[in-house]
Amino acid sequence: MSHKESFLQYLQTEKRYSPHTVRSYLNDLDQFYLFLSSLGLPDDPAAVSSHDIRAWIVTMLDNSYSTVSVHRKISCLRVFFRYLRKEGVIKLDPLEKVVLPKRKKTLPVFVEEDALVKLLDNYSFEDSFSGIRNRTIIELLYLTGMRRSELIGLRNNDVDLQEGSVKVTGKRNKQRIIPLVRPFIKRLEEYIKVRDAKITPENNGWFFITDKGNKLYDKYVYTIVNRYLSMVTTIEKKSPHILRHTFATHMLNRGADLNSIKELLGHANLSATQAYTHNTFEKLRKVYKQAHPRA
């Protein structure tokens, strides 16, 4: 078994990373090895030096990679080389002496409240299976702040209409319960009714399905969200994750406490949730400047 194959197994079984994260790590690793190959260097991890990694960082920055992307790719290498050291494949970690470029602080992008109200309350979704499902997906992402992978992974028994809650399985298989508002439960009932007419024997209990009755996948959900958000906002990114940012920002703007939002989002640390307070503070600053006579 190659180092890459054993690393893949390690990510899946021991680290329990999501399929999306595993794919990202393997892509980053492939990119690093392609870089080594372009320099005529061997693909032996024991031969990799801190100089090689610094050279890759410089090359990425020269090719206009953001510092966020660079940090993510180096994070992959960090996990990879720590794994190899633990397995006794290498003696020294080449990343120990590598200093990363400072990461620029960027505020989470979100959709304005009135834009989502316009989409969910005023836009006429098609009265068909796909129209009902698409609206349900967008509203569920916005109402719960769940990740795209968590939505795709929902099974029928995760949604409890009696209790008005949804059980979400997040990173590292950590589960959390998110309450649902009563009006939305009627929306779910409507979706389930039209969905059950399309379920195939191969469905295996997935809550959301494609037009053909199969399990959803990443690109499918992205296309749905991007299509509808494009109707109401001009922000550059219109992905499912933007609805997660939007959920957290709108909750904070309306007075929800940070710890509650942390639990709803499934964040391991409060520091990850605190990023949303900057948006709230910026809004407060703007209102203050507009309203205070001496601002």
Tell me the radius of gyration.
Answer: 22 Å
| CATH level-4 homologous superfamily of the largest domain | Intergrase catalytic core
Query: What is the string of helix and strand elements?
Result: HHHHHHHEEEHHHHHH
**Which regions are unreliable across 5 or more consecutive residues at pLDDT < 50?**
none
Estimate the mean pLDDT confidence: 88
**CATH A-level architecture of the largest domain:** Orthogonal Bundle
Brief rundown of the structure:
The chain is built from 13 helices and 3 strands. Helix 6 packs antiparallel against helix 8 and helix 10 packs across helix 13.
Walk me through what this model shows:
This protein is mainly alpha-helical and 295 residues long. 56% of the residues lie in helices and 4% in strands. It is built from 13 helices and 3 strands; from the N terminus they run αααααααβββαααααα. The chain has a 3-stranded antiparallel beta sheet with strand order 1-2-3, with no helix packed on it. Strand 2 and strand 3 (175-179) form a beta hairpin. The longest helix is centred in the N-terminal third of the chain and has 20 residues, at 19-38. The chain is globular and about 60 Å long. The termini are far apart.
